[in-house]
Amino acid sequence: xxxxxxxxxxxxxxxxxxxxxxxxxxxxxxxxxxxxxxxxxxxxxxxxxxxxxxxxxxxxxxxxxxxxxxxxxxxxxxxxxxxxxxxxxxxxxxxxxxxxxxxxxxxxxxxxxxxxxxxxxxxxxxxxxxxxxxxxxxxxxxxxxxxxxxxxxxxxxxxxxxxxxxxxxxxxxxxxxxxxxxxxxxxxxxxxxxxxxxxxxxxxxxxxxxxxxxxxxxxxxxxxxxxxxxxxxxxxxxxxxxxxxxxxxxxxxxxxxxxxxxxxxxxxxxxxxxxxxxxxxxxxxxxxxxxxxxxxxxxxxxxxxxxxxxxxxxxxxxxxxxxxxxxxx
Length: 329
Ligand code: BGC
Known about the structure:
Distance between the termini: 92 Å
Strand content: 15-25%
Radius of gyration: 27 Å
Bound molecules: beta-D-glucopyranose
Number of domains: 3
CATH superfamily of the largest domain: Response regulator
Order of helices and strands: HEHEHEHEEHEHEHEHEHEHEE
Largest sheet: 6 strands, parallel
């Protein structure tokens, strides 16, 4: 046989064999890729469910449970898969590491509180640079590349709080303030709003400001210390959800009445105390709406719709005359 012919046939056989092996390998890797995608929570093209994560300031906190409820119900409505996470006790570093974890897990979108510009902005930008859209909730990080903010206009809400303090006290009083945290921008913005109003009344003075670390127990402790240290305080104002009830408990145990207490948010205990006349008023945010809207906006974004960069959910000032409206917020 012609030697040339034999070697030519050998090359063809070898080529066919290599082609067969290559096709087999390509099909196998495509199958593996699909399995990996499914396992990592990234649905294939045939399954349009998005996997999103909502990172809270504190898990199991009544305020965040309302946010969670709104987000869960919206996710069910739009066929999205939502995961809730957050530190068990308020801890900004842990919150940031949960944000990093969500980025590493390549989730489809993240909803996160933008508590502190310096710390959150670079990590939010990292997510966006990797193609993960981020919505800030409750507290904005406006310098970041986040898609949108959903929540209260915190300076305006602080001013509403200030106006309520003036209205309730007639513009006279020595004020003790408890804020949720000295590192949280939403709390500092509310404090600024409160000061913007109070500074125009010569009969009013803020004599002490302390932080509750968004804990009911710490709010009691701080309020009690403040009242012992400043017996002249006759108005107490709180800027986070658990503060007013803490101040009420402290004033009861120290038998400090009359004391005008004005707080924030619509926790059941706060609303009950308003109906009994023990807390004068509260500035109620809309945590359910925040959760609901954040998920809805992500859904619209995934549908290719254009969304705005800021959605203020509004607050309602509640006193004894309209306190029942707080239950449906
Ligand atoms: C604030 C939240 C905070 C919550 C806890 C709310 O008023 O908007 O940022 O986590 O209070 O007390």
